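Internal tracking record. Fields below are filled automatically when a chain is submitted to the structure queue. Please do not edit lines marked as system-generated. If the sequence contains nonstandard residues, flag them in the REMARKS field before resubmitting.
Queue: standard
Priority: normal
Entity type: single polypeptide chain
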Amino acid sequence: MLVKKTTEMLQPLIDLYGGYIDKGSSLSFKWFISKREDILKLIEYFKNHPCRSAKIKRLHLVPRFYELKDLKADLAPSDSLLAKAFKLFMEKWDKGDYYSIQNSTTISKKRNYSET
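SYSTEM-GENERATED OUTPUT FOLLOWS
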């Protein structure tokens, strides 16, 4: 979300990254993105033009979230590897600990987890 006093400054963001503008209050407008492809486009921008706040750590975690979500790790039985991977991800998300997730073992999408 990005807040501005006029929509003119927000329109180029929609042209580049998608999303929409909502009237935040009588004095501001907000730009939102929620679609996966729009969010991933914005993350690509931040790879080339790094954010200078603590939020950058979470931005880099978003692709991992989508990977785990596609594998339905959030719905996996609690004793499965997928559930453990999702729990670890959520702990890292809460801490904003991007670097330890990057160094952890990546789950292969080809592996069959229905037998765990």
